[in-house]
Known about the structure:
Blueprint: H1 6-16, E1 24-25, H2 26-33, H3 37-50, E2 53-55, E3 60-63, H4 65-95, E4 98-105, E5 108-116, H5 125-128, H6 138-145, H7 149-159, H8 172-185, E6 188-192, E7 197-205, E8 211-220, H9 226-249, H10 254-257
Antiparallel strand pairs: 1-3, 2-3, 4-5, 4-8, 6-7, 7-8
Helix pairs in contact: 1-3, 4-9, 6-8
Amino acid sequence: MTKTIQVIERAFDIMEHLAPDREVSLDALTAATGLNKGTLCNILKTLVALGYVEKNGPGNYRLSSKFMKFGETSSREKRITETAELYAKLLADETGESGVVCTLRAGRVHIIAQAQFQRSLMINPFSVYKDISLYHSVSGRILTAFLSAGQLEKIVEVSGFPGSEWDKINDLKSFEKSCAGICSKGISVMSNIEKEIKAFAVPVFDNEKRLCASLGLTIPLSRSNANTDKKIIASLKKNSAKMEKAFSREKLSQEDFIKL
């Protein structure tokens, strides 16, 4: 049997008897938990001080909005993951290639979902998408280019300028110019001769046209030609638009994705 820490166990027992929409008296909590009032009051004081429980009047308690955000955050992350997985798979199935959905977390490219279509010659997504570069990848460049000016400055504070990873950029003006170029095209495309791959990525926005994520795809260079590339770009843009509608339905916004 797993050994538990008694005070934590008691704190959770107390919170299980509370709710955000109704108050519970100290006497009712004492009866429900079986704790003596001294112990119960000490734990409640700590929970109130931390902001997870609210005290209203003499001896009445309820769960706070801060506590409820735990459940909301978990629910949002689940919706984000499920939506990203769906469209990464739809993209992979539609193009016969490997797709990936990324966002920014702590100044780094964070993979939300990836999917691979099964065929004889395929890109290994676990090697291609492992430790995606912020500046030397199509996903990273899309996620950087469509940030606001203030957000871009925060990225520079955390990660510095791209330097050799992107057009030898070492000042903000040059950085903004390169970002503007990607924004005007609405897509980032890069070829890696050494790895024999070609990658594409487009932005995905929220209801207010703020960046949430990137939708990307990588193919072997041997399969790249004008006709194939055109179809891939069309598929990326189509599925990106569908993702945006899904984000809107799920009431997801930039704040749910981008964490600088």
